[in-house]
């Protein structure tokens, strides 16, 4: 018999085979990681928002326009809120609309779940916009603002989750698959 399987390329990695259940894992795929919707939302959406808003007010400060803007009869808070709202329309709404379209095309049928997902992703993107705004309040120029936003992204998306995982692994080390198999085989039978 030649081994045959029906392969579905967009199925989950543990259910890729229709007729055969196999525990095969490709090392190159494991090394490259997964590129899925969660990766795009958690890792790439913040980079998009930060790249589009790192110079929210630092650009005006760097060019010497900040005193002119602040001398207008509009409060500084209102000015920054209007600039942030304009950036939010450009940087938050299109990704959320694309997300809704992708989920609807993928077969999502519950309008409540779609709206909840859209709201969570919008709040996540607005968090990163607020971070960019806070960095812009203390940065003297656009380069410092860009580095501050990048440092915030690295800290919150890369370093803190890795640190939390390391602490969790130290507190309760995971067992290896070999140990789990050994425990199942060496379990005493009750007669």
Verbal overview:
The chain has nine helices and no strands. With 191 residues, it is mainly α. Helix 2 crosses helix 5 and helix 6 (93-105) packs antiparallel against helix 7.
Structural key phrases:
191 residues, mainly alpha, flat, disordered N terminus
Biggest β-sheet: count, sense, barrel? none
Mean of the pLDDT scores?
Answer: 80
- Helix tally equals 9
Strand content range: under 5%
Order of helices and strands: HHHHHHHHH
Helix percent band = 55-70%
Class by helix and strand content? mainly alpha
| Low-pLDDT windows of residues | 1-5, 16-24
Record field, number of beta strands: 0
CA-based gyration radius: 24 Å
How far the N terminus sits from the C terminus, by CA atoms, comes to 40 Å
Shape: flat
Tell me briefly what this model is.
The chain has helices at residues 27-32, 37-53, 58-63, 66-70, 76-91, 93-105, 111-138, 142-171, 177-185.
SSE inventory with pairings:
Blueprint: H1 27-32, H2 37-53, H3 58-63, H4 66-70, H5 76-91, H6 93-105, H7 111-138, H8 142-171, H9 177-185
Helix pairs in contact: 2-5, 2-7, 2-8, 5-7, 6-7, 7-8
